[in-house]
Amino acid sequence: MWDTLWLEVNLATMTSGGPPFGEILDGAVGIEGGRLAFVGPCDRLPGEPGGLAKEVREGRGCWMTPGLIDCHTHLVYGGNRAGEFEKRLRGVSYEEIARAGGGILSTVKATRTADEAELLMSAEERLADLRSEGVTTVEIKSGYGLNLETELKMLRVARRLSERAEVTVKTTLLGAHALPPEFFGRPDAYIDLICDEMIPAAADLNLADAVDAFCENIGFSVQQVERVFQAAGNRNLPVKLHAEQLSDQGGAALAARYGALSADHLEYVSEAGVRAMAEAGTLAVLLPGAFHMLQEKQKPPVALFRRHGVPIALSTDCNPGSSPVTSLLLMLNMACVLFGLTVEEALAGVTREAARALGMDRSHGTLEVGKVADLVLWEIEGPADLAYRLGASPCREVARNGLTVLRRG
Ligand code: NIG
Ligand code: FE
Question: Does the domain spanning 68-357 belong to CATH 3.20.20.140?
Fold first, then answer.
């Protein structure tokens, strides 16, 4: 006996190689022990519904997708930077604000002074927004501490969120996000601190699932990031990189050389960088919220990613500076309208490919027998509605590990 059987649901399984969206109309889904035990058309069920499962649920023609995965966020932070947003509207650039000691560093001040309870509470509110739209897995980076104590504090809060909020959390140490004021003029000494103390401590305490860095004029050089990647490799931690967001630094090629899970942003990536990513199997994570908020003009080269076969994931980049976004559905729309993705590419970018970007594609990201039963029920006419309707909330029910964690309407 299965625990639950869903009947009369249209499935966007998001498996590749078959029909668009891996679609199965008039489908059924069986769940047992938190895993998918059956995914197929209703008329292929191996028996009478009542005899197959303890609980039978009617989907009434709703659509079901895998639980959404937000694979790049800075969800845990203190403070607010709406004032900087107003400055940017008056023509001051993101880079100018950062060079004047604002930007990331203003969030660092607020995050250092906030205690864990405060950080947890504000992050929980943002997470609630994401969850209300079907997000069941979220990646959360540190990077607003920039000292050992606060980086670990952020990672601990991220881990606690996963215990409290019925969401799967992957944590990423982003010590190399900006140069903290106490290290001004001594960036290499700060890199020493990351390599010698932060990475080993995060690894020993099992607080980080991966390591990230910001490779940019206002961040760190390829040489500095390479040292961080080596230290991560010494502790068997996978790497990823904020690369080519504001200029071409050769970060994507570096990420590829270290077998990175993903290179993220990529507005300024060169064709050589894209080719290197393709060869290494490094995904492109596109962040249309940051592109929009910073009023970027240069788009990430989607045609090159397609031509070279680089898979594309999508994320909110939820952070207080460049992307104060807590709607992954909005990112579907922006990726289609601003970057020219198809709806299918966009939806794959927050399911199958996002799972791959987090190294969890064996267990998550598609509706397939054996995978974890993270799923969302949507009251929509078809998958395109998810990218088409701005501000709609068609999410009706969310299950994580087979258990209902949200039910609406
Ligand atoms: O992904 N680019 C660097 N990091 C973040 C922005 C962080 C911030 O402005 O606070 C990003 O866009
Ligand atoms: Fe980011």
Answer: yes
Mutate which of 88, 172, 177, 291 for ligand 1? The one with the most ligand atoms within 8 Å of its CB, which is: 177
For 94, list phi and psi in degrees, rounded to 5.
-55, -45
CB 249 within 8 A of CB 219: no
- Comparing C-alpha atoms, which of 107, 153, 171, 174 is closest to residue 324? 107
Distance 297 CA to ligand 1 centre (A): 17
Strands 403-407 and 168-176: unpaired
| Numbered ranges of CATH 3.20.20.140 in the chain | 68-357
Distance CA 156, CA 189 (A): 25
Pocket test for ligand 1, best of 96, 220, 319, 331 (most atoms within 8 A of CB): 319
Nearest to 321 by CA among 348, 349, 293, 292: 293
For the chain, give the percent of residues with pLDDT over 70.
Answer: 100
What pLDDT, in 10s, does the model give residues 300-336?
999 999 999 999 999 999 999 999 999 999 999 999 9
Instruction: Confirm or reject CATH 2.30.40.10 for domain 2-67+366-407, answering yes or no.
Output: yes
- Delimiting residues of CATH 2.30.40.10 domain(s) in the chain: 2-67+366-407
pTM: 0.98
| Residues 173-216 pLDDT 10s | 999 999 999 999 999 999 999 999 999 999 999 999 999 999 99
Distance CA 201, CA 99 (A): 30
